[in-house]
Amino acid sequence: MLQPQGDRVVIEVKEKNDTTSGGVVLLDSAVQKESVGTVVSVGKGRLNNAGEHIPLDVAQGDLVIFSKYAGTEVTHDEKSYLIVREADILAVVQ
Q1: Number of structural domains, the chain?
Q2: pLDDT over threshold 60, residue 27
Q3: Residues in contact with 34: Cβ distance below 8 Å, sequence separation at least 6, in sequence order
Q4: 93 backbone dihedrals φ, ψ, rounded to 5°
Q5: For residue 29, pLDDT beyond 50
Q6: What are the φ/ψ torsions at residue 46 (nearest 5 degrees)?
Q7: 23 belongs to a structural domain
Q8: What CATH number is associated with residue 79?
Q9: Residue 12 burial class via C-beta count within 10 angstroms: exposed 0-12, middle 13-18, buried 19 and up
């Protein structure tokens, strides 16, 4: 499993449907990246001036909405993930 460092979070991005409601299949270039995903793992948090870790507000299993162009896409064990900073997470879906 991927263990992010600092205030980073690993997200499994929800796959976006590549077919329109009318059944037309869209090309990869026409499909925008989904901005919703599930948190897979979180880092220890950022360090304050005293060298203490400030824990993150998100936890493993949270469904989150993140900035459209945030993070770095990685592949691990044939699955695609997105690694983002906590600041790039806009909301937790409840």
Answers
A1: 1
A2: no
A3: 13, 14, 15, 16
A4: -85, 125
A5: no
A6: -85, 160
A7: no
A8: 2.30.33.40
A9: middle
Ramachandran category for residue 8: left, alpha or beta (phi over 0 → left; psi -120 to 50 → alpha): beta
Q: Is residue 44 part of a domain?
A: yes
Q: 3-state class of 7 per DSSP?
A: coil
Cα separation, 69 vs 55, whole angstroms: 24
Q: Which domain holds residue 79?
A: 8-18+29-93
Q: Is the pTM of this model over 0.90?
A: no
Give the pLDDT confidence score for residue 31 in this predicted structure: 44
Matching residue, tokens 């037309």: 24
Question: Is residue 63 domain-resident?
Answer: yes
Classify residue 39: in a domain, yes or no.
yes
DSSP conformational letter for 25: B
Q: What is the pLDDT of residues 30-45, one digit of tens each?
A: 445 679 999 999 999 9
